[in-house]
Design the sequence.
């Protein structure tokens, strides 16, 4: 009896499975793989944490996904803070930590500190499964061994005794009951006995190996097997019954998960979806021809997120994401070897009276789609008269049991709708057509058939089977569409010539064209379609916006991207039952409410086949279903089935880059001591003022359509619109305190809460508090120094005043001396001259008294010396007070030196001094004042001989630009401190009083040298001789 019941249940489930496979809804998936940033395509575990981040465990690290970017965590250099293995087997969130089961043990991850902790070094094998009860215990399995870990006390209990079992899976129900499976049986943990009660679940006559269990509710535990499908254990009755029978079709179950109405099952045979209300089952498998199917049949894990989206991790195909919103757009696209539409560029769509859709394509003929059987039949040219004349179809119109087909440049075909054979063909050779490009057809309310071509519009005469050019419009215009409004007026859109109007009753005609000077004219002359809504508004679609025509004023109001449209290229317009316009563009589908002016945009992120639609490709069925053609096929949907999503996604800061380098928590030089996603305040150095901030609104439905705004308090009070960009850049932000705020608007039109972080940019060191304290000390020090300096300067000035007074006195004394010596010299020179002349006369008469000759010679010699001294004093006076006028003549300097040397020969011999004369081989000539240069040299030679002990050296030489006269003597060395003093008038060195002199000679020589633009200085070339150097530079030299 029990066996028969089992068989009946199994048979019923199989029949349900087969039936629902055919008639169930479509499921479309979005795929994420290594090409999208994942670390590996093998995804073995997945969870969504309480904040909204998705975590994926792979064979090459742990991935965190925020809807935009994958952040990968791998084993690192520091075993204390990083994973010990990149092979992630299981994941679980508990106690605000992410628990990561690897093939080398269990780790906990602190999201705030971004730090991994190894739980138990003794447990270093593969972690197969993880769950938690309601008593702060974490349960996990390590290669068959069941382990209980208390997250508060860190106590570990291993169930590995003799009464233990080889554990394969764990599941805790909502009441905290812990269920564990072995390969053969089910176990329930008893809190009272701290042990497990064994439950026999094997059915009579069957043996299966349990792979995974799942507490469906508090009364049911699902048992997934390796090869016998799925069973359900009823807690109340203690009975096990088949849930999905795998006797005929073995199913290796990997994981369960559920939402409100569906149970999702990951298996090695694809994904099974069990409708908990309808009790139907659907199996989803990989399809090579379907890019929206699951990417791999080996499904290992399932996560259902906060938005009811389903994430399926596979072994080879990465992770697959399904959102119910994707299913609201039914997709029809070419698929090889399967029942599918043929052709990608879908053009006109119309329904015949048999319930078939006729779909023209520009690349593969025409398709007939049976809405009941969901079967497609394609018609292409076959080279016969009964076949299509061309594959590029533009116009389609089912009319009775015939289908009128317009081709591109190959005329018009009339097909029998039942047989699919062309029964008539028209072109310029057998009709009045001026063009074989049949653009579209239009049938009026009076059942008149118009054929729209690239050269005029033609009216078909059913009785005579002829076409007549329509004279109500231009006969040479390239037309694109035709329309009749509810008043019976005819409208025709053209390719480049605007909108044409004709009133059959009044015969009134008009042409509306764009006038750039008139903003109430039609926005463009390329008319793509014409539509009248339920409120009798006439809408004109163009390639530069949608136009609403006010027929009374004959004015147009334009709707463009400035009104929120994604593009200005408008293709077709339909209206749904909620009085919204459904508008196709080159960048998505727009749902537009004219009353509220609200705009809702749908793109491929919402499940469209393509963002760009096609011309003249829109059809609305009587039940409200809409069909639109695009460049990848066709979509259909019913707007009443559009879901309203109320999920308010959180927004997190997800990344910080400084100077284009990602910032790592607690890295060297890092401003982060915890994760940037949770930190509330960031302090940056002045050289870190160039930084980028990443953020993400954790909604995975259509993150590409999420819009962002940010504001930086301290810089601006206005929100900055970033469109869909989730990154902001700051460059050289001044030092100061800021508050960064970011918010988002989801694709469902829901505003997020703000994410806020305070940012402090420290000033450079020179502008820091320490620096200002240092500046204060420096300023105080400077003030102190200035006061001291002022005091010092005051003292110095007072001393200077005293010195100046002393100098003035010295100058007065000096001038008094000069005046005294000058006056004396003047008084002495005249008597000396009077004495000298008689002496010279007496010397000439020596023959009379020879005995007085020596006395006269002495007298004459001293008189001459005294006269020379007087003349020197007067010359010095002249140079000091009046200045001498020099006369430069070419002079033989070498000869002059020899003459001076001969004058001093008696004195030299008298003092027994050796005089060395170094004049060179050639005479040296120069332009000098001979008298002045003679006085200079004479004084230098005189001083040298006068103070020499035994040797005087006179050197004369020249180079290209200068003449040097050097006199050395080996007398007592002049102290270096008196180097300049000796050239002062009347200066005598102490100890030189025994030598005759006035102290004027060197001063006179120095003054005369300066008048020659030369220099006279004392040099200390060695420690044995005084050296006086006369340098004439520049000087004109001759040889």
Sequence:
């Amino acid at each position: 009896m029990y066996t028969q019941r089992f068989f009946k249940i199994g048979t019923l489930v199989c029949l349900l499975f087969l039936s629902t496979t055919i008639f169930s809804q479509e499921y479309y998936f979005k795929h994420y793989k290594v090409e999208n940033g994942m670390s590996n395509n093998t995804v073995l575990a997945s969870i969504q944490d309480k904040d909204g981040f998705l975590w994926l465990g792979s064979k090459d690290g742990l991935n965190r996904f925020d809807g935009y970017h994958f952040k990968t965590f791998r084993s690192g250099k520091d075993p204390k803070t990083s994973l010990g293995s990149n092979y992630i087997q299981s994941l679980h969130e508990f106690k605000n930590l992410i628990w990561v089961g690897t093939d080398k043990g269990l780790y906990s991850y602190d999201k705030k500190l971004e730090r991994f902790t190894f739980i138990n070094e003794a447990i270093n094998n593969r972690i197969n499964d993880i769950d938690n009860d309601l008593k702060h215990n974490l349960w996990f399995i390590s290669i068959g061994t069941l382990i209980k870990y208390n997250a508060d006390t860190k106590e570990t209990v291993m169930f590995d005794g003799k009464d233990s079992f080889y554990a394969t899976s764990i599941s805790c129900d909502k009441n905290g009951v812990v269920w564990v499976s072995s390969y053969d049986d089910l176990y329930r943990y008893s809190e009272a006995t701290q042990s497990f009660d064994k439950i026999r679940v094997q059915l009579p006559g069957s043996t299966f190996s349990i792979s995974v269990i799942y507490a469906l509710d508090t009364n049911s535990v699902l048992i997934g097997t390796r090869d016998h499908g799925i069973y359900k254990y009823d807690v109340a009755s203690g009975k096990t019954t088949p849930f999905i029978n795998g006797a005929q079709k073995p199913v290796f179950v990997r994981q369960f998960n559920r939402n409100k109405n569906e149970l999702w099952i990951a298996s090695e045979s694809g994904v099974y979806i069990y409708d908990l209300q309808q009790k139907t089952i659907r199996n989803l498998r990989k399809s090579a021809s379907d890019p929206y199917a699951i990417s791999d049949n080996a499904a290992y894990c399932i996560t259902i997120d906060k938005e009811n989206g389903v994430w399926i991790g596979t072994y080879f195909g990465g992770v697959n994401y399904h959102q119910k919103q994707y299913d609201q757009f039914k997709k029809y696209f070419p698929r090889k070897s399967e029942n599918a539409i043929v052709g990608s560029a879908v053009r006109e769509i119309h329904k015949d009276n048999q319930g078939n859709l006729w779909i023209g394509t520009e690349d593969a003929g025409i398709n007939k789609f049976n809405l009941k059987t969901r079967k497609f039949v394609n018609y292409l040219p076959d080279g016969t008269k009964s076949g299509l004349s061309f594959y590029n179809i533009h116009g389609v119109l089912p009319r009775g049991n015939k289908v009128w087909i317009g081709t591109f440049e190959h005329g018009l075909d009339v097909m029998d709708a039942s047989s699919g054979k062309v029964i008539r063909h028209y072109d310029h050779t057998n009709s009045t057509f001026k063009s074989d490009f049949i653009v579209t057809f239009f049938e009026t309310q009076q059942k008149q058939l118009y054929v729209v071509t690239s050269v005029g519009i033609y009216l078909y005469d059913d009785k005579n089977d002829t076409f007549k050019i329509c004279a109500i419009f231009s006969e040479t215009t390239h037309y694109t569409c035709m329309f009749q409004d509810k008043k019976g007026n005819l409208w025709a859109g053209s390719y480049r010539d605007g909108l044409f109007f004709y009133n059959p009753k009044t015969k009134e005609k008009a042409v509306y064209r764009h006038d750039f000077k008139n903003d109430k004219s039609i926005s463009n002359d390329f008319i793509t379609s014409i539509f009248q809504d339920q409120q009798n508004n006439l809408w004109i679609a163009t390639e530069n916006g949608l136009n609403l025509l006010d027929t009374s004023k004959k004015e147009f109001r334009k709707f463009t991207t400035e009104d929120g449209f994604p593009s200005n290229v408008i293709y077709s317009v339909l209206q749904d039952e909620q009085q919204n316009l459904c508008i196709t563009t080159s960048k998505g589908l727009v749902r537009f409410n004219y009353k509220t002016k609200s705009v809702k945009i749908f793109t491929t992120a919402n499940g469209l086949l393509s963002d760009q639609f096609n011309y003249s490709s829109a059809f609305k069925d009587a039940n409200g279903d809409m069909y639109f053609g695009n460049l990848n096929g066709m979509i259909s949907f019913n707007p009443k089935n559009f879901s309203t999503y109320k999920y308010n996604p959180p927004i997190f800061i997800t990344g910080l880059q400084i100077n284009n380098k990602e910032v790592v928590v607690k890295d060297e030089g890092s401003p982060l001591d915890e994760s940037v996603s949770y930190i509330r305040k960031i302090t940056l150095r002045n050289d870190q003022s160039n930084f980028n901030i990443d953020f993400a609104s954790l909604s995975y439905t259509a993150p590409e359509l999420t819009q962002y705004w940010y504001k930086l308090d301290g810089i601006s009070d206005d929100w900055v619109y970033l469109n869909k960009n989730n990154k902001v850049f700051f460059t050289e932000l001044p030092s100061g305190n800021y508050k960064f705020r970011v918010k988002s608007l989801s694709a469902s039109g829901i505003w997020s809460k703000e994410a806020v972080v305070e940012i402090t940019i420290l000033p450079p060191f020179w502008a820091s508090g320490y620096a200002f304290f240092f500046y204060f000390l420096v300023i105080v020090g400077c003030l102190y120094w200035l006061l001291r300096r002022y005091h010092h300067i005051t003292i110095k000035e007072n001393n200077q005043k005293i010195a100046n007074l002393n100098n003035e006195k010295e100058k007065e004394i000096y001038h008094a001396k000069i005046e005294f010596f000058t006056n004396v010299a003047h008084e002495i020179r005249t008597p000396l001259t009077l004495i000298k002349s008689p002496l010279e006369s007496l010397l000439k008469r020596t023959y009379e008294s020879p005995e007085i000759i020596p006395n006269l010679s002495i007298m004459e010699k001293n008189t001459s010396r005294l006269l020379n001294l007087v003349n020197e004093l007067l010359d010095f006076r002249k140079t000091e007070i009046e200045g001498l006028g020099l006369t430069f003549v070419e002079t033989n300097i070498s000869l002059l030196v020899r003459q001076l040397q001969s004058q001093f020969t008696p004195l030299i011999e008298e003092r027994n001094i050796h005089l060395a004369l170094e004049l060179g081989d050639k005479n040296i000539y120069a332009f000098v004042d001979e008298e002045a240069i003679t006085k200079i040299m004479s004084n230098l030679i005189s001083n040298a001989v006068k103070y020499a002990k035994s040797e005087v050296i006179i050197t004369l030489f020249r180079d290209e630009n200068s003449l040097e006269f050097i006199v050395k003597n080996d007398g007592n060395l002049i102290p270096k401190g008196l180097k300049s003093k000796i050239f002062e008038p009347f200066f005598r060195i102490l100890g030189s009083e025994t030598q005759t002199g006035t102290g004027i000679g060197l001063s006179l020589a120095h003054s005369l040298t300066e008048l020659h633009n030369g220099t006279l200085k004392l040099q200390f070339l060695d420690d044995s001789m005084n050296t006086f150097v006369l340098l004439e530079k520049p000087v004109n030299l001759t040889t």
